[in-house]
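Protocol step 4 of 5: obtain the predicted structure for the target chain.
Materials: sequence only (see below). No template structures provided, no constraints applied. The aim of this step is simply to have a reference model before the mutagenesis design in step 5. Sequence pasted as it appears in the construct record:
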Amino acid sequence: MITVLSGGTGTPKLLQGLKEIVDPGDLTIIVNTLENNYFSGVYVSADIDTVLYTMSDMINDEFWYGVKDDTFITHERLEELGCGELLRIGDIDRATKIQKTQLMQKHGLKKACEIQARNMGIESRILPMSEEQSDIKIVTDIGELEFHDFLIKYQSEPEVLDLKFSEVSPAEGIIDAIRNSDAVIIGPSNPITSISPIISLEGVREALKDAHVIAVSPIIGSDAVSGPASKFMEALGVEVSSAGVAKLYQDFLDNIVIDNKDSNLKSQLNQIVNKVTVTNTIMNSLDAKKNLAQIIIDSIP
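Step 4 output (structure tokens):
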């Protein structure tokens, strides 16, 4: 059994490779919920939906958000009616969100994800990190911003000074999933806003110390492969490098996977973590995703 800690961009690319080389039924995916919120009357859990769409082969992998070949009739009509949306939500994607909103009112987020995964033919177990409403504020040089305002309205351009996270409780089942796994893979998602919220949940870090943990660095050189991770790391005083990532996970990390371009960091990283795996981490094709996934699986003792 393999447990994967996931955000919504880098890790789903790895999941595309993993589900090709291991039995999807042996995968449990714990997904960040820090950025979840209501938009246009529906509950938006962007990272969870990205994982659902990835595991059901529906993902729009140009943007790593929404459904491939979706239409935007509702979104465009709302614009015409003077009711513009911050998020550009497709019609099929909106149906998923409407159903999740309705299911949550009766069952909660964890059960809603379980029902939707089953309806999409997904064999893997997809768990939200928490069922409680979470929140994140980005403190910038132009004021305090909601996460999606920073990311979409302001295109991640403001200088980031600090980040504020709400504290939530772990969803039922995630501690057991970690404890019962042969290995835990921390995907190459944003280490600050996607992964740290998961590992900071009560009991998670302690469970990880008893697991075999492999992390894929989302940093190459001194910049993130995608997204604003670099800005967030700098704001919190974390070195923007694979070494900085390793230090965030140092107390439970067994193996860090870094890109070939960072091979010069191997001796430094060996002082932080027992094992360093150097390979290609740029997942620009299915073969590259499968190759990286295979290297990770082969490294599990």
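Step 4 remarks: The chain is about 40% helix and 20% strand. The radius of gyration is 18 Å.
Proceed to step 5.
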